[in-house]
Amino acid sequence: MPSxxxxxxxxxxxxxxxxxxxxxxxxxxxxDYRDRAPEDEVIYFxxxxxxxxxxxxxxxxxxxxxxxxxxxxxxxxxxxHGGDLxxxxxxxxxxxxxxxxxxxxxxxxxxxxxxxxxGDESAAYHGYWITDFTDIDPHLGTRADFKAFVDAAHARGMxxxxxxxxxxxxxxxxxxxxxxxxxxxxxYRSKADYPYxxxxxxxxxxxxxxxxxxxxxTEANFAKLSRPDYAYTPYVPEAEKDVKRPAWLNELRxxxxxxxxxxxxxxxxxxxxxxxxxxxxxxxxxxxxxxxxYGRWISDFKLDGFRIDTEQHVGxxxxxxxxxxxxxxxxxxGVPHFYIFGEVMNMSAAVLAEHSRVDxxxxxxxxxxxxxxxxxxxxGAPTDELSQLFAAxxxxxxxxxxxxxxxxxxxNHDLGRFxxxxxxxxxxxxxxxxxxxxxxxxxxxxxLRGVPVIYYGDEQGFTGDGGDQDAREDMLPSQVxxxxxxxxxxxxxxxxxxxxxxxxxLYKLVSDFAKIYREHPTLRRGKQLVRLSxxxxxxxxxxxxxxxxxxxxxxxxxRNETRRAEIEVDPRSTQWTSLVGTCDRRPSAPxxxxxxxxxxxxxxxxxxxxxxx
Length: 613
Prior knowledge:
The protein is an alpha/beta fold. Among the domains are: 1-165, Alpha-Beta Barrel (TIM Barrel), CATH 3.20.20.80; 172-280, no CATH class; 526-607, Golgi alpha-mannosidase II (Immunoglobulin-like, Sandwich), CATH 2.60.40. Helix content is 29%, strand content 16%. It contains 21 helices and 23 strands. An 8-stranded parallel β-sheet has the order 14-13-12-7-2-1-16-15. Helix 14 runs antiparallel to helix 18. It is globular. The protein starts with a helix and ends in a 6-residue tail after the last strand.
């Protein structure tokens, strides 16, 4: 049916896409989804532009001109491809059939459509170049479309997590000493060399008299920071002077204006993120401004959580004000378990834990988990790396119990897909071996501690060619040549096909794992005990201990060899049943359980219930 007919009546399509079968599947979840804690979810991470195009009329965002104006070029991996919010809503059956209970969407706010140095432009299909924090990007639809999507998800008992940005806006500000855009950007100018008190660096004319530095976060102090030209002379081209919303974001004093970050030391918080305008988040008016912006999104749409982009590049004082305000706004809006997780792109569990303690970030995205799984499954590293990872759980604010709520993942839109990591580590691996390793990684994602995040397309065997644009393939039939020549895992299809195949092996596996995960609270909330890891081998075993007694034993073989082993278990676990794989009914001796694992195999075994004390 042509889209002009399908969507001729405003939002009539919403009811149509909520099938009777899907509503039956949701069951009582529609009434009680608000009561689920964060660790009870299975998250699907999706980039709407690359998912489904239900309304071709919005492909160009209503912007006249060609791709360098409106950003739409479905043949280029760096431009808009036409996916939209209506398409996402239309595919909720597919997402829910995967066993997903929460959907994380990349930013949907209005963006600067195209930016970048001449000859190297790209578009804001990803959503991270925001100009208007109060409205939906017209390439994706309207506020009404977003409300229809959120309402349709909620009607199925599914939550919606919105990706938000605070660190920066789109690249609008220019510096007279270093015109932008340019390939290298403008060098960072430090607070010592270019203090707030002088114009153009040490020895310059006196300005901003009486300003005591941004460590004094009072309105009275910041009122004395009247001039933004202490490092560079910032300005905005006439055509973009009032492009940002809310209007206060157009004022230059609300930006650091110190040039590009080197991602080291001071510049990590004060520098422009690859040229994007770095917001002065130490200013109390900025703090309150963003509390107002994102509090409104919670109250207007009853969202269930935020993923915070570039969290590590904003100072702790901001987060100590912003996060409690969002949690309070959510409670006032009837959302008691508002899930806030943030991007701290660091592979060290200690650094991630630091942000949970210093910033008050409830849950950092677990990049350390991603790294460890990549190392042991893709690269064949000893499984002791996993043991060391989980030993650091006590470092997080709230300790190991709180770490159960960390969002875990195998790959993402910035660093690359898990399938890419597998191919990169062993280019000669057979199709069968790649599929087995992929399945093993998914088993570890679902059954080891943490909240599993599925990156869209992984369930269809997407591999990609690397990170960033190379990991952002289309679920809709793609026209990008560098996507369509990829060999997918577990299927003979390519990204040139429509990839919503509910019979693909990885889709079915994820659905099966999600069902087991939902049915057994111990897999979501149970204390995790490492039972076996190897400093030169590939076996790894943990027990998940049930609150009502009993345990679930998980054993993984990350090597291409058959293994047998005796695993320590609780002596009270005397009878066993299988959840995944083949499990012996009886232990080999009190406190010892025998397992047999095929290459890249795994078993999940459940014991009888027994009293904890």
